[in-house]
């Protein structure tokens, strides 16, 4: 297999519980994905912070990052993301400083402002500080200061974090985050795998308003998309039904574990539901190696992104791992 992709490839792994499995299964599968994609030369694997979601095992994101980093040796491991309003910047600096100390040069800290949960759960996390999202820009700067060697004279210092280089990424699914990432001169990752509507406008805003910083001289844009690769277009389209069923569960609030690609439920025939599903699938790429090569080449050229991060919601783990291999081959330079 050739080693050089036309663009860096990375993974967003949601540690989704499979039908017939449990949270331990989800974590074991996440490790398998990390090890497999590391062997293929993928750049990084990120995990997302979600709460009060029965079939997602990544709520203690920092702990899971440490576990995955400990089971791999080269691939970067990080958060996609830590929902900073749920936490004190000091605690996150200490946690990720510890991770960087244990696994030097391999830890990423992606930051988002959403709760990663429903409002009641957000209240349980944030207690009385329900306006924390408004403080997100300030909290990001505070986090930067805790990692800075210049913080040594402050009354509050973060150990082990001070002086360590843990790269920060701003995550978003709307244009608000694009302005923030540009203003701070930080790399930007957009969640087009579930909220693709504003992707191109967010890219335009980020690149237009980007201000060089001490950590980044030029814009760096990551797009997260869904990819389902298979031996044939027919098989890939069948596998996609597992993803569609997950989306229907989100839309109708009937969440279930990821299951095999069965026939779609009757509710999918409701025009409003089908319309919402199709909107969420706008940045989903499905097909054989040749089909993915064509569609993703076009997407990369049109979006001018610097890195492609992929989520692959496939029930069968062998087929899921194969999908990452097919994607790698599709985007490999001759």
From TrEMBL:
<dbReference type="InterPro" id="IPR050766">
    <property type="entry name" value="Bact_Lucif_Oxidored"/>
</dbReference>
<protein>
    <recommendedName>
        <fullName>Luciferase-like monooxygenase</fullName>
    </recommendedName>
</protein>
<dbReference type="GO" id="GO:0016705">
    <property type="term" value="F:oxidoreductase activity, acting on paired donors, with incorporation or reduction of molecular oxygen"/>
</dbReference>
<dbReference type="Pfam" id="PF00296">
    <property type="entry name" value="Bac_luciferase"/>
</dbReference>
<dbReference type="InterPro" id="IPR036661">
    <property type="entry name" value="Luciferase-like_sf"/>
</dbReference>
<dbReference type="InterPro" id="IPR019949">
    <property type="entry name" value="CmoO-like"/>
</dbReference>
<dbReference type="GO" id="GO:0005829">
    <property type="term" value="C:cytosol"/>
</dbReference>
<comment type="similarity">
    <text>To bacterial alkanal monooxygenase alpha and beta chains.</text>
</comment>
<feature type="domain" description="Luciferase-like">
    <location>
        <begin position="14"/>
        <end position="244"/>
    </location>
</feature>
<dbReference type="InterPro" id="IPR011251">
    <property type="entry name" value="Luciferase-like_dom"/>
</dbReference>
């Amino acid at each position: 297999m050739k080693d050089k992709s036309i663009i860096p490839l990375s993974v967003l792994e949601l540690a989704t519980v499979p039908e017939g499995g449990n949270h331990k299964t989800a974590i074991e599968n996440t490790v398998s994905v990390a090890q497999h994609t590391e062997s293929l030369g993928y750049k990084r694997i990120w995990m997302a912070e979600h709460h009060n979601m029965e079939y997602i095992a990544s709520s203690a994101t920092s702990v899971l990052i440490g576990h995955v980093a400990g089971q791999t040796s080269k691939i970067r491991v990080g958060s996609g993301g830590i929902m900073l309003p749920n936490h004190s910047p000091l605690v996150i600096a200490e946690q990720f400083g510890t991770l960087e100390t244990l696994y030097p040069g391999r830890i990423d800290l992606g930051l988002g402002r959403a709760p990663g949960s429903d409002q009641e759960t957000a209240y349980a996390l944030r207690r009385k500080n329900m306006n924390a999202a408004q403080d997100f820009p300030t909290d990001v700067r505070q986090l930067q200061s805790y990692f800075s060697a210049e913080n040594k004279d402050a009354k509050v210092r973060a150990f082990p974090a001070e002086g360590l280089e843990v790269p920060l990424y701003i995550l978003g699914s709307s244009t608000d985050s694009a302005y923030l990432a540009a203003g701070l001169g930080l790399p930007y990752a957009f969640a087009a795998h579930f909220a693709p509507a504003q992707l191109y406008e967010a890219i335009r805003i980020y690149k237009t308003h980007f201000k060089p910083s001490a950590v980044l001289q030029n814009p760096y844009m990551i797009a997260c998309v869904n990819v389902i690769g298979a031996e044939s277009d027919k098989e890939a389209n069948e596998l996609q039904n597992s993803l569609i069923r997950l989306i229907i569960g989100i839309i109708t609030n009937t969440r279930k574990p990821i299951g095999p690609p069965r026939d779609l439920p009757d509710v999918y025939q409701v025009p409003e539901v089908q319309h919402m599903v199709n909107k969420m699938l706008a940045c989903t790429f499905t097909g054989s190696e040749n089909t993915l090569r064509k569609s993703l080449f076009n997407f990369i050229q049109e979006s001018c992104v610097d890195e492609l991060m992929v989520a692959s919601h496939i029930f069968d783990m062998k087929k899921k791992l194969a999908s990452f291999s097919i994607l790698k081959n599709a985007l490999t330079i001759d």
